[in-house]
Amino acid sequence: MEHKAGCLICGRDLVYGEEPRDLPCAVCGEVVNTAVACEAGHFVCDRCHGREALDLIEQFCITTELEDPLAIACILMRHPAVRMHGPEHHFLMPACLIAAYCNRRGEPGRKGGHLERARMRASMVPGGACGTHGTCGAAVGTGIFVSLITGSTPLKKQEWSLANQMTARSLMTIARHGGPRCCKRNSWLAIRTAITFLLERLGVNLPVEGVVRCEFSDINRECLREECPFHTGYRTG
Ligand SMILES: [Zn+2]
Ligand SMILES: [Zn+2]
Questions:
Q1: Which of 51, 73, 155, 230 measures 20 to 30 Å from 209, CA to CA?
Q2: Would the pLDDT of 236 be above 80?
């Protein structure tokens, strides 16, 4: 679904310059000689424009140096491969949290392995599980994240507890806002919950700043509009 014109990273207008210049692709990092970039200087190569959702998410999270998981999520959601609703959000959740967390801790080299495992685990969570299993996949995504960074297994004690608490807290927050499902609202709520959890339980402070204002309400038939906290803008910092 083509839901946005303009820059895939920030939404600003694209500028077609007269002189081509070398710019790194904002998704894969490859330097390409190009005459087009957005007003803020972002460029996305043709290959990354055409990526399917899960590859895009994994590739961008490996490349990005951002430490704000909400900012990472919003960039990925703007790409046309990420649908309004869909199970790609189940991977998007742990992916943007893994990227922000590892970048914040100065361990970007750990992202690749975590992302690979998160992608496999997220693929086991079916679309629509929020309605059919009472378990939103975005919330499960935060549990996948905590289980990966703590090294939880079914036999662990503290790590096992933390991972299950993470999912439980995300689910409570998501449930309180009521249906129908919105993969954007649920994802932002889950990330907010994970940020608070990381600070309280693991002492990791991810920098978040700015306002998340939903850009998707026009293409979401079931949008709660004024009843959604992100409809008019939700201050995150
Ligand atoms: Zn841009
Ligand atoms: Zn690229």
A1: 51
A2: no
